[in-house]
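Regression report. Comparing outputs from two consecutive submissions.

Submission 1:
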Amino acid sequence: MGLSTKSNKTLYPHFFHLSGIHPELPKYEVLSVLESESYSHQLLKNSNQCLVLKCTKEGANLAAERAAYCKRSVRILYKAEVTEEKVIKLAEKILRNIDFENIMVNYKSFLVRVYRIGNAHSEFNSMDLEVAIGKEIWDKMAGTCEVDTKNPDITFVLLFTQEEFLFGEEIYARKKGSFVSRRPDKRPYFKPGTLEPRFARMMANLSKASTKNFLLDPFCGPGGIILEGALMNCNIVGLDIDKRMVKGSIRNIVHYKPNSQYHIFVGDARNLPFQNNVPSIATDPPYGRATSTYGKEVEDLLEQFFSEASNALVTGGVLAIGMLDEIPLEDIAKEHNFDLSIFEKIYIHKSLTRRVGVFVKK
């Protein structure tokens, strides 16, 4: 699908229900996916764990499917401040403002789900509200459709935020445990300290990896980031100075995505074989804690790597990198012709806080 086709389609308001792992990174991830695949979008509202955008249905589906820290995307049919005191009144209000007869014309079954951000409007019992809205819809449709809790034709979602409630048609919902099978200890090749798949997926997305181009990880290790890139149908290139890592990452790629387009080889991130032709780099270099940097201090390693990355990336190319909080990542990037796009601190566990930096080649 070309850029013009995507851009010319009608944009509708959608909300993206986000993970609470970090205040900003899940939002950046969704936006990065839309930008990487050239889907037109307009930011309407950014609140805690809820991003509201105008975009196409296809864009809403893709962004929610690819973004690791997005729970679901929903096309908004109605929104309002929460003023009703009774469940039945709220259900009736929703019914009055939505043309369910038109929406349900091609559907035989439906389901209603209620979620909330934190404890927002906990005075409304979720199950009671699901039943009340479901009954109102069933009555409106005069019994021509039925509730199906296992495989409904359409799912309606009500989300309570602190400011309002949003109600609409679910476009995509992530299945629970969708990343579990790719946990590092479940892969054919395992190395302690490997990125968890959700975090690796986010890094690939923040680099604006695209299915139209290739994604590079020059410190690929066991292949966590490039594996996620392959599963997103990107062409991937990985290199590592340790041939055991290269062999291990190939095993992992072949196991999870045997038909992917990949090129993984032994190489040094301080001497990249690229020149102004790399669109996206996502990487998580060795930190020097329980890992080998082959005798180099982490800062020296990063100085050399950023110099190489600057030469390798196209103008406007994106580098997403994770690093220890105490390393002056922003200063190093500025010295090597990068503009700062995102720089966020994320707590991993009691002995590790990581900085996620996203930098754009000038």
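Submission 2:
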Amino acid sequence: MNASNPRPSPSPTGPDDAIVAEVLAAAGGDARRAILGLVLGQRQLEAEAVRSVSAGYVRRGLRR
């Protein structure tokens, strides 16, 4: 395999492959745009998780 003749992607066969196909389709087939959307979504979920954890819980967890 060389850079000028990449192998075609296999068709979706499992639930994870179907999710990947769905994400790529939502990004108009642009893999970079799909990855960026996933990264930004992950950052948003992490920020929400940080806001939802109480400071008291975090302090108790640090004493262990």
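Expected: both submissions complete independently.
Actual: both completed, but the second showed a warning that disappeared on reload.
Relevant detail on submission 2: Helices lie at 15-26, 31-52, 55-62.
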